[in-house]
Each structure stands twice: as structure tokens, then as C-alpha cells.
Amino acid sequence: MKSTDLNIELLKSSSIGLVLSGGGVRGMAHIGLIKAMEEYELSADVVSGSSVGALVGALYANGNSVDEMLAFFKETPLFKYNFLTILKPGFIDTDRYFDIFRGYFSENSFESLQKKLHVVATNLQQGEQTFFSNGELIGPLLASAALPPVFSPVELNGQLYADGGIMNNFPSEPVREKVDFLIGSNVSTVGGLEKSDLKNSWQITGRVTGLMIYANNQKKLKTCNLLLEFRELEKIGVLDRKGIEKAYQIGYDYGMRKLGESITDK
């Protein structure tokens, strides 16, 4: 099925996969897209996510509403003084978020979710990506979103795991062959910059990292039947909580426009 002139009734009767990239606060655009999908009466059967995409995907698979998803990110503190640590390799102790997540995922298992969910995290010791889709839920979610060096790695089964985006920022692998139609939401885009945007080491590092991540995922992005990339998100900082509503609105507006351009009633 191609992404142009889609028949809405045919699409509703097809199995749909949704892949959500990492990208920090920019990932609120994923929630905007989900809202747009709901307005077109479209629902994904299988979801795969990395980093913030894993968190949004888990809330979506859990049956949480769009308002509840936004509340999760608004109410969960990114930086809390009593979460700071000098005992772990990270400024913030990721494990301290467990109880907050438990408030949303009380059963703490993939099997309790309403949709099939795949989450990717990076095994720092073995230097490889690991997909999680069964058993304990909260540990893999925390690991997938544990961006170094801000958040400490998470220990799972005796191994240290960190942000899934380190090795796989667009985890389409578990979904691609299992659905009729694949929707991709990529909030880690790269566009042109002015020289003034690259005037210090921090900006250069961020730019290089962004280019590497985007280059590594280009082939996978092209396998989507419908791909959404949100260029307007580039001016929103990855950890800028003030950008939550703006990123959500960008995702909703572009999602509605893109779906409207692609779907027909015929």
C-alpha cells in the first residue's frame, strides 16, 4: 500500500504499525500525531519506540488518552534535586523514576498493555541494541530513555542499559514485516544551519550527533508507507520542557495535514 490516495476504509481494516523515534521533548509531536490518527479513526496494532518514543508508545499501548500522555510529561520532573547522584555514572539517578512510572503502569508488564509494544535500549557493556517486548515493562522503559550523561544507566539482568537512540533511533525492525501498513514518526530531523548556530563545542557536538543518527536511519525511514518528519521541531531543545505544548501542536497540525493529503474517501 502506498502513501498516496489511500482508501480510508481499506486502511481502517488493515493492520497498522507505528514507529516512534527518540528526540526528547520533540517527541511530544508523536502525541500530536496520535491525536490526528484518532480523528481519522486510525489505530495502530503494533508500536515500536526508542527513548521518548518508547515512553509515548507505552502510554499509547496502555490505553492512556492524549491528555493523560501530555500530563505524564508535564508532571514528571526531568530534574529533581533529590534525584541527583554522585554514586552512579550520570547526573540523575534514573531508578528514582520507578515509582512515578508505576503510577501509570501499575501492572508493570508488557503483557498488560492493550497493544503490542517493542522497546529498544542500548546494552553499554556488550555494545549492542536489545529489544524488549515481554516481561517487566518499567525497567526497559527507563533504560530506553536514559540519555547519557544526564541520566544514569539502568541495570537489567546484570547488564547496564542506556538510551535506545544511541544505536537505534528509529526501531522499525520488529514491526515492518508484521503489519500491512507502516507509519513512521521521526522527530530527530536535520536541516540547514547558519554558521552562527555552530559557534561552540556544545553546538558542534549536538549537530554531529544529530547528523550521525539521521544518517544511520535513512534507509529505514524510506521503508515506511507513510513517514512524518517534523522540520519545525528543530528550534525546540531536546530537554526544553517549555516546548511540550508547541511540539505537540506541531505534531497534530502536521499529522492532520499529512493524513489529509494521503487519505481519500474513495
Describe the protein.
The chain has 266 residues and is α/β, with parallel strands linked by helices. It has a single domain, classed as 3-Layer(aba) Sandwich (Cytosolic phospholipase A2 catalytic domain), CATH 3.40.1090.10. The protein is built from eight helices and ten strands. The protein has helices at 8-12, 28-39, 52-61, 66-75, 98-102, 138-144, 201-221, 244-262; strands spanning 6-7, 16-20, 46-50, 116-123, 128-132, 154-156, 159-162, 181-186, 226-229, 263-264. The strands form two sheets. Strands 2, 3, 4, 5, 6, 7, 8 and 9 form an eight-stranded mixed sheet that branches. β2, α2 (28-39) and β3 (46-50) form a beta-alpha-beta unit. It is globular. The two termini are 15 Å apart. The model is unreliable at 79-83 (pLDDT under 50). InterPro entries: Acyl_Trfase/lysoPLipase (IPR016035), NTE (IPR050301), PNPLA_dom (IPR002641). Pfam families: Patatin. This is NTE family protein. It comes from Kriegella aquimaris. Residues 18-176 form the PNPLA domain.
Keywords:
266 residues; PNPLA_dom; alpha/beta; Cytosolic phospholipase A2 catalytic domain; two-stranded parallel ribbon; eight-stranded mixed beta sheet; single chain; lipid metabolism; 8 helices
